[in-house]
Specification:
Number of helices: 19
Strand order of the largest sheet: 4-3-5
Strand content: under 5%
Number of strands: 5
Shape: elongated
Distance between the termini: 87 Å
Structural class: mainly alpha
Length: 466
């Protein structure tokens, strides 16, 4: 509506102007080259306007014909780009759907029209991966690293391919290159796992700090990883530099107060250097909140030369810190059996095998050992062994499907830090538990944790004691 009013106003102004121009007296006279032209002011103005319009039209026609070749070339390029992007779209959809033949056809068409387009290289890599052609995939990813737009994507693709062919050093190389360009989470985690798998604890600590700085991990996660790495360093240095190991382990439990391996190591180091009372206080405090078998092992090691009777008296007092925990009953029963105090052993196990309770495999084995020690081979022994073969498994250190006798800083399968968790193994367990520390330098390994080596129950699986 406003535009219409403006148009009407302009038209009115033009009409008024033309009327004023017509009403003005006067004429235009032109003498040039023997020609004499005389006309009115209106006709002269109209002629000037017509001449200017003719010049503009002639210039436009000349420019049109002059630029025609470039316009034709640009139109051809536009059509090629359109065909190329259509092929890219079809190819990416086909690759996502797993249609290798259609994706390959589209990739060839896209390369024909868009040979320098970054997405074309990505489609070629996806087609090669679908066909299982690792060489072609790596070639495509390498080409992507030559372009600034796709360098990071190419490095990630090369990292994945290196991991698939189990080339650890190459995978680390590509992840490290990507991490130096931009500290992305995947690259940071890959660098961290590599150093962890190689037991390069100092380099792993630096990677944790870099990941935290880049916000690839949050502060609680960084604190936990710091604690795990400090525990790993402490285990490594406990023989050569016990003071430094003690300092590192104490730092670890400040960051992660529930990290049992660090607590157990501190207790062992304190007891080894004469601070037995401090070690016992630390273990009793930890046992009250988290009665873990590793803490029980450390407690027993604080006085290795005591008699079985003295050890039993000490264990009974220690177990009172968590008197209702099954781990306390198992610890007292185990110690009582060693001291040949069958009454104490039976009293300790009674709440765990009472009606309505579901004793674990370790408790069943302890009951079988008690019956055998007290009454000799008999029906109850066989009964408890049979129950043990069907009983729930006792908790153990588990990481990536590996059941270990003792804790380790990294998974032996993936190299992931802090992978081991204390949990009941999945049912059923086949074969004896593995030791996740097999591939880790022996210098920082803890003494072997407890395991009931009576392993195979009549046709049943091997049983790791908790």
């Amino acid at each position: 509506m406003i535009l219409l009013l403006i148009f009407i106003a302009a038209l009115a102004a033009l009409s008024i102007g033309l009327h004023w121009l017509v009403e003005q007296p006067g004429s235009i006279v032109l003498d040039w080259g023997g020609y004499h032209v005389e006309t009115s002011l209106v006709v002269g103005a109209g002629g000037v306007i017509a001449g200017v319009a003719a010049l503009i039209l002639a210039w436009a026609i000349a420019v049109y014909f002059f630029k025609a070749p470039s316009r034709l070339a640009q139109s051809s390029r536009s059509r090629r780009r359109e065909k190329g992007y259509q092929a890219l779209s079809r190819g990416i959809i086909a690759a996502g759907a797993g249609h290798a033949a259609e994706a390959k056809k589209a990739a060839k068409e896209a390369a024909k029209y868009l040979d320098k387009e970054p997405l074309t290289h990505l489609l070629k890599a996806q087609v090669a991966q679908l066909e299982g052609d690792r060489v072609a995939a790596e070639t495509a990813f390498h080409e992507m690293t030559l372009l600034s737009e796709t360098r990071l994507l190419g490095l990630r693709g090369l990292h994945v391919e290196a991991k698939r062919r189990k080339d650890v050093e190459a995978a680390h190389h590509f992840a490290d290159q990507a991490h130096q360009l931009v500290p992305l989470p995947w690259a940071g985690h890959a660098v961290l796992e590599h150093h962890g798998a190689q037991a390069n604890w100092q380099e792993a600590r630096a990677a944790v700090e870099a990941n935290l700085k880049a916000k690839a991990i949050d502060l609680p996660t960084a604190q936990r990883l710091r604690a795990v790495l400090e525990t790993a360093l402490a285990l490594e240095q406990q023989e050569r530099h016990p003071s430094e190991a003690l300092h590192l382990a104490r730092q670890a439990i400040k960051r992660a107060p529930d990290l049992v391996p660090a607590i157990a190591l501190i207790a062992r180091l304190l007891a080894r250097h004469g601070d037995r009372n401090k070690a016992l206080k630390l273990l009793e405090k930890a046992w009250a909140t988290n009665p873990h078998p590793d803490l029980a092992d450390a407690f027993l090691e604080t006085a290795p030369s005591e008699s079985n009777a003295e050890r039993l008296a000490r264990v009974k007092k220690f177990a009172q810190a968590a008197s209702n925990a099954p781990e306390s009953g198992a610890l007292v029963a185990r110690t009582a059996l060693a001291a040949r105090d069958f009454i104490a052993a039976r009293d300790a196990l009674a709440p765990l095998v009472a009606e309505g309770q579901t004793p674990t495999a370790q408790i069943c084995l302890l009951m079988a050992e008690l019956e055998d020690a007290e009454n000799g081979p008999s029906g109850p022994v066989r009964e408890w062994l049979a129950r043990g073969s069907r009983a729930p498994r006792d908790p153990a250190w588990i990481a990536d499907g590996v059941i270990s006798r003792s804790w380790a800083p990294v998974s032996p399968v993936t190299g992931k830090l802090d992978a081991f968790v204390w949990a009941a193994p999945p049912e059923p367990v086949r074969g004896p538990a593995e030791d996740a520390r097999a591939g880790i330098p022996a210098a920082f390994l803890t003494p072997p944790a407890r395991l009931l080596e009576s392993a195979e129950l009549e046709g049943g699986p091997g049983l790791a004691a908790s």
